[in-house]
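Hey, quick one: can you model this chain's 3D structure?
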Amino acid sequence: MEMNRNGSWSPWSVARLILFIMLLPIFAFSFFATTWTSSYLMLDEDWRNEIVFTPESVTEPDQIYDVDKFIYAFKCEPIMTAVCLLSFLLLMGLIIYWIGKITLHIIRRIIS
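Sure thing. Here's the predicted structure for all 112 residues.
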């Protein structure tokens, strides 16, 4: 995190950290709810009509690809699935930002 010249934390750094901390339980709950909903695809009698990416040669419902389960969850619960996807993307964006910032700091230290 960035520090100001007077030794205090930058408001934007604190805001990013608070956002990260708030997104963790949001993602955890929405991921749990999405996987719970997607597990019902295997119990559906008409599961063959719901698959998109799983090959037609699949005979057992436990062989359904996870992406098809995610699409099924999106059909059943679109808001929760969208929250799961968006919170995941935001978390990954923050992590990539911090890793990039640390890497840039290390490179600058090596060069100078």
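One thing worth noting: The helical segments are 11-38, 66-76, 78-111.
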